Amino acid sequence: MGVITTDSPNDPGYARARFIGARLLVAGDAFFFLGFLFAYLYLRALDSNGNWHPAHTDPSVVLGTITLVAVVAATAVLHFASSQRLRSAMTVALALVLVGVVCEGIQLFNPGFSPSHGGGYGAVFVGFAAGFLAHLLGAAYWLETVAVDSQATAEQQQIEARAALVFMTFLSGVAIVAYILLYLV
Question: Number of C-alpha atoms within 13 angstroms, CB side, residue 89?
Answer without folding.
Answer: 20
